[in-house]
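Minimal example, chain plus nicotinamide-adenine-dinucleotide.
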Amino acid sequence: MSDMFSLKGKVIIVTGGTGVLGGGFVKGIALQGGIPVILGQNAEKGKERVDEVKAMGGEAYFISTNVLEVTELEKAKNEILEKYGKIDGLVNGAGGNVPEGVLPPTEDVFNLNIEGMKKALVLNVWGTVIPVQVFGPEIAKTGNGSIVNISSVSPKRAITRVLGYSMGKAAIDIYTKWFAVEMAERYGDAVRINSIMPGFFLTTQNKNLLTNPDGTLTDRGNKIVRNTPFKRFGHPDELIGALIWLLSDASKFVTGMDIGVDGGFTINSGV
Ligand code: NAD
């Protein structure tokens, strides 16, 4: 039974594995015997993550890559194939909010920063679609591949101020469903695609919205905690179970699904 969840020997790319949630993904994959290949832009963090996995007795690799650049992704693909000979999975962890795309509370709603919003859209949508285009064919070749996108609660309920980000994640939601069907038409069950919907976790990309410089919560941070039935933010390790399930044989008949890990945020009416 426990073997169903094994990732032993599986080579799994984690874009944004340099980030806070990505760090949890990397650790989780390594704990199940997988080999996380971290793609990100912060070489120092990347090296740190690799060292952490090696200290656990595992194997990991970092390649400095911008997920929006096809040539960099192609280069990374060749490097991975040369080193490991295959790619079993992909976790699209690179993404997040973009400060310029956030509507300040006092700003007129008819004065949205369109350029800032576009940046959030581009990073979240194309930063997911393009890596799938580049790595997907290799993943399908394994006959048992899995791709995991990272969505958000923001396309499920209206979350104030972050429209560009929410639109980006809404696009990921339909992309996951659409791609699951089109891929199955062509590759059968050789490769699956699903998404995880995290609730609120304190990380780099949302720190300024949720915490004050002295570390206390902003009004927005407090509102989120009040509206989360578990009355707290999530911990990155709490996403690992869903991720392992989606990457492993334990979810072999699951595709096109969005798995919520949100402390009850999206099912709460607030009453
Ligand atoms: P984070 O800022 O800690 O991590 C994001 C990582 O992506 C960073 O390491 C960053 O360098 C990397 N990145 C950004 N642009 C990149 C690019 N062009 N190429 C390569 N790497 C790039 O933030 P996080 O909260 O850990 O975010 C991870 C994912 O989880 C994001 O998609 C985010 O939208 C999503 N998410 C986060 C929360 C939350 O509460 N933190 C909730 C829902 C969804």
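The beta strands are 11-15, 35-40, 61-64, 89-92, 145-150, 191-198, 258-261. The CA atoms of residues 47 and 62 lie 7 Å apart.
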